[in-house]
Amino acid sequence: MRRPDATDRPSLPAGRTALLGALSGALAGAAFTPIGAWPLAWVALAPWFVGLSRTSVRGAVGSGFVFGTVFFWFAMAWLRHPTWYAALGLGLYHGLFFAGASLALRPLARSRSVFVLACAWVGIDLLLGRLFTGIPWLLLGYSQIGWPTVIQIADLAGVHGVTFLLALTGAAVAAAWRAPPGRALRGAIVPALCLGAAVAYGLTRPTTFAAVDGPRIAGIQPNIPQALKDATPKPGTDGVFERNDRLTRAALASPPDLLIWSETMNPFHNLGTPDVPRFANGAEAFGRLARETYRVPWLLGTPYYFGAPQADGWPPYSNAAVLFGADGRILGRYDKLHPIPWGEYVPLGLGFIADFLEGFTGFPLRMQPGREATVLEAADARFGTLICFDVIYPRYARQMVRGGAQFLVNLTNEAWFLESAEFDQLLAQSVFRAIENRIDVVRVTNSGISAHIDAGGRIVARVEEGGRDRAVQGVLRCRPGLRGPTTVYTRAGDGFAIGAAAVGLIGLFVGRFRARRRKSGS
Q: Cα separation of 252 and 420, whole Å?
């Protein structure tokens, strides 16, 4: 006869389980900016795990949907600024995703293994970053940007290593809540040991690393409102080009080794390959500007057109960074690897959906993704360029570092999101890319937050005006250190996350097998 334990407690009504899911979603979302109460992340998952351990399959699915949507709206409400349809659609997607994830988490939440449950959560995070091209924004580990000591383990296990600790602690709290008297603390041993090891590593791991001084960089932050950026440029107005050019000429009073303009700062849409005559003159005009006026290597964020015109008369295009030499020649080009799904392109080749959404929103959705993690070279240094949301995918930064990049550049235009928490959240993800690969990251943005992040994840310079780091103009002057691939994460990538996901999957199958044996033997 089986001895009763916590899983034998009466089931919770679906409504109460949904409330527990909502509580967890709110706690997890509040750990991110704009609230930024990062300690909440350590217990955020506990209420939902308690509910999953004592509910039906139907109740689990409902609570998962509530958890996902509440989590999204607390942490990513800023997405409403450019378009409500994307905010509503992604909120629904996250709800459905976690509704499905609850089916895997429920049997593990009912077991006593907090370790396996935490591993399964890492597997779910990994899937969130890959499914339908992936949206790995709400990984819990990013919330811990306020605890620099603990996030140093990212050079071993990436952001997923920090997420694992948070899930492990949440699972332990849930297990203690439903454990019989006298056994509540037993499940805290493994989480305490893992957290202690992480803190010890962060305290003893050097955060300053030997490096050769890299190029002197001048990054231009023009602070151009999106409405002005979308408007047709008019001669004589303080438009996109004029603001960038004015700040650039001021910065050239102390010439840098590398000049950088942020994402899509070419307002004329006339840059392309020579086989597209309509756009080829742009390369000549910008090259002449680099050669005759700026006279330094210049990385320009720009739309780039290539290939034969399509049915609408326009050739395919990418979101690119074009590197001009001081002599005006194009030295190289990087095309954004991961256009934003449903924002810059429609995945899976669903052209008819693109037609509908373009008519509904007015946004073009035909951007072509880049094919390789190109490493560019200027001023005797090799660097990788991550455009906008490329930086949220750890694998791209890692590929560039493995390809020889000695520092990383992140070009973004975040004026779409006004002055919201999106700025802070994307900066936090850039900090993780720096720690994972122990490499400097230079962010050059349109409206903020332009910053130099060192290999220890510290922000050592940023553009500020009157104590503000967004919606201001300025020049980011910095000199990143040059380093090579030195970390476990650079070499192994998401090996830890994949291993944890495998443990969670095996635990799920073993648990189902044992449950069937108990049922057949009762």
A: 31
